[in-house]
Design goal:
The structure is a homodimer. Chain A is an alpha/beta fold. The first copy, chain A, has one domain: Rossmann fold. In chain A, strands 1, 2, 3, 4, 5, 6, 7, 8, 9 and 10 form a ten-stranded mixed beta sheet that branches. The two termini of chain A are 29 Å apart. Chain A is globular and about 55 Å long. In chain A, helix 3 crosses helix 4. At the A-B interface, helix 6, strand 10 and helix 7 of A face helix 6, strand 10 and helix 7 of B.
């Protein structure tokens, strides 16, 4: 079995079951850590008894490590569970305890330098930082979907939410089981990914922090324009990169209720 | 009394009271027609008995005449009433049975010609179409506020919603009783109005139809950027000028619930 649950699990308020797992990728790399949250009524650790299989939301997150992102992930998982959805997060390539991605540190330092100097960020820097991450993360997320959707209690449709927008763009373009995505426009996007955006056709809900000083707002608006989806919504708010207002998160939750139930 | 209710009134579903009125402006012009909607529990035509005074939303609308806009206005008034708010709409200068505004027809024809020819619309055209309307409409709306807020059953806070965005911008900049505004970015904005936007400080919720072919989207985004408000949100959707999705209207309604209750 590719997906192995930890013996540790816990029940959160509201009867949400939280189960850490590891996903074997079938190569020489160690299995990838992840967490699965399931709402009440979709199974227990000892006797998974599906009532109605829950739709699944893949929770994207910045490449800062699952442990560090846990508080924000569990809050999002709680919202998903309250709406009747399962949620899962996977450790990103190069994050947590995983081996760093080649060239990533150098590219990140160069991006930071350029942003702080008020200079444009070179395409090569964005490509070097983002493309290796996307190239590895998307197949891993698809393998996670294979394993998670095979579990009793978890079915489609599938949503993707947040994290590194380029990962979400490619996943939405290539993964037919993805029915809807909430994307957070807060990171630089390689030109190749902006081109892939034209092939995205599923309903999209894009969050943009208008006064996010580390973001290229013009590029974010161009990316929104590029998405091929007939149904797409942009919600722009103030509050800086991490200051997404509560009502914005609620609107994103309602988007998933419209599209995943 | 400046505000005179018609003898005709009707109760809509949900016990919403609809009362046409006229507002005397104290000059040689005939009184201006308007409509007031009040939720259940805030008064009757024969014996206005305020329980808790309801907040008031001024419903802006395009300059097409109250009669023609009635179906859309009553739908918005119903939503307001369901949330416990009174709502009122006033006939715009130059619309309905009111004398046309000087230069408006010529400016409108020129704007249409330029848009259809794919040419930029000249500043002079936008100014000629919009500024006379704003100059007259804003004082009339403020006079309407004076009269409506004096009624038992109607109190503050006051919201403004929709219609010609330039009217909303100036009203938000000059009217201290205005607590929050939902603005629809679908019409050309004179440069002078875009400057006034910097003085707006109340919470704003801006709706933009991303694929509205008759609109200058870049100018709409620049206007959003110019607003001085610390709390402002932009919701952009697809669907053309008149295709605002239902969930977008619901989000605007929730904005008023957050700010007017």
């Amino acid at each position: 079995m590719r997906l192995t649950f930890s013996t540790e699990h816990q029940r959160l308020d509201g009867d949400v079951l939280e189960r850490p797992f590891t996903l074997a990728l079938g190569d020489e790399e160690p299995p990838v850590p992840g967490i699965l949250w399931t709402p009440a009524g979709t199974g227990s650790p000892t006797a998974p008894e599906p009532t109605a299989p829950a739709p699944l939301i893949l929770l994207g997150h910045p490449p800062l490590g699952l442990d560090r992102m846990y508080p924000r992930l569990v809050e999002r998982a709680r919202q998903a569970a309250a709406d009747g959805f399962a949620a899962a997060a996977l450790e990103l390539p190069g994050s947590g305890g995983r081996p760093p991605l080649p060239g990533a540190d150098r590219a990140r330092a160069e991006l930071r330098r350029a942003v702080e100097a008020g200079e444009p960020v070179a395409d090569e820097t964005v490509d070097a930082l983002v493309l290796p991450l996307v190239d590895r993360a998307v197949p891993e997320l698809r393998a996670a979907l294979d394993a998670l959707l095979a579990l009793p209690g978890i079915g489609g449709p599938v949503g993707y939410s947040g994290g590194v927008i380029s990962i979400g763009v490619r996943l939405a373009a290539v993964e037919p089981r993805l029915a809807a995505a909430v994307l957070f426009a807060g990171s630089f996007v390689p030109r190749a990914i902006a081109e892939e955006a034209r092939r995205v056709s599923v309903p999209l809900h894009v969050l943009l922090q208008w006064d996010d000083e580390g973001n290229d707002r013009r590029a974010s608006l161009d990316l929104f324009d590029a998405f091929g989806s007939k149904e797409k919504t942009l919600h722009a708010n103030m509050g800086g990169h991490t200051g997404v207002p509560p009502y914005a998160a609620e609107a994103a939750a309602r988007f998933f209720v419209r599209h995943l139930r």
